[in-house]
Amino acid sequence: MSSLHRGSPAGDGDGPAGPPLPPVPAARAVVDCAAYLHGRRQRGFSDFHQAYEHVREAGEGFVWLGLHAPTDAQMASVAEVFGLHPLAVEDVVHAHQRPKLELYDGTVFLVLRSMQYIEHDRQDRANDVVDGGEIMILAGRDFVITVRHGDHTQLAGVRARLEARPDSMALGPGAVVHAIADFVVDSYLTVVTDMQSDVDEVEERVFTAATRDLDIDVVYLFKREVLELRRAVAPLAGPLAWLSGHDGQPGANPRGERSVSFQEKEIRRHFRDVADHLSTVNDMVVEYDERLTSLLHAAATKVGIQQNTDMRKISSWAAIAAVPTMVAGLYGMNFEFIPELEWRWSYPVLLILLAAACLNLWRLLHKNRWL
User: Fold this and answer.
1) How far is CA 269 from CA 57, 126, 206, 244, in A?
2) Which residue ranges form the domains of the chain, and what is each CATH number?
3) pLDDT per position as a tens digit, 319-357
């Protein structure tokens, strides 16, 4: 039985299908590729097959291959060259992974969520406050493969800064993983710093705006965005703890032998610095989450109090209207013997009595602050 491939063209149902389209070469997904020896980029090895073969023959250095949203077939050819585990390849292609760190036969597989703050003129017109993508890193003894999905995941600046510091690049794949993790966590710091004024403004609007002008949807919007940011930040604490050498901390689950590059004391120190920055970000995200939760409760309380006030006013006016309604109902029964029916002044006297009763009832309700 023939298998169905995702990339095969579908026929129109009236005739035989055309010939299958040729597979897209892996080079189409390559953003950048280079071999590094002694921390310096080697020229003339833009093809990852040649670059990896050169590193293997030299017995030192490593290859840094950058990919953007590769397909199954493209990633399969990369996996064949670098000997990647099928489970890691599957996660890399399909993306939508939570931040995590796993070990596959000594290869570190790290998933990061990148975040960027979206500028907006007014909070009540903003649909999103943060936007992000995914950066996946496969780091072995002599290679680093970075796979990007979505926008705001460009790593050209990270590569350029590392290439300007050969001493750092000479530390191997661990230095590249640290640089990318540091870049991502620094972007988190930028996002939470930019969100500070927004959260302050939302808090001010909730406590200063009149209840009828209160827009609780803005609070829900920021609550949703903070939760999305928290899903990117919180799970990263465990992987950074493991990369820092603190295997015993909660969330530092991977068990296995680290490659030489990740055993460097200097690399671990740098990862500890990134973990400290992440702790700062996580504290700010938790603070925003708690403040927005309190704002939701405060807004709901304000709305509830206003509804109770409105119901008291409605009930008060209904009670005042019940007095003339009752009298009108009695006199509208058309009985033959109704008191004062033949008296000339009965109608004006009745109106005066009704007005006095309603006025006294209004004064009583107003005194008790129901009106």
Assistant:
1) 31, 40, 44, 7
2) 26-304 (3.30.460.20), 305-367 (1.20.58)
3) 888 888 887 776 776 666 666 666 777 777 778 888 888
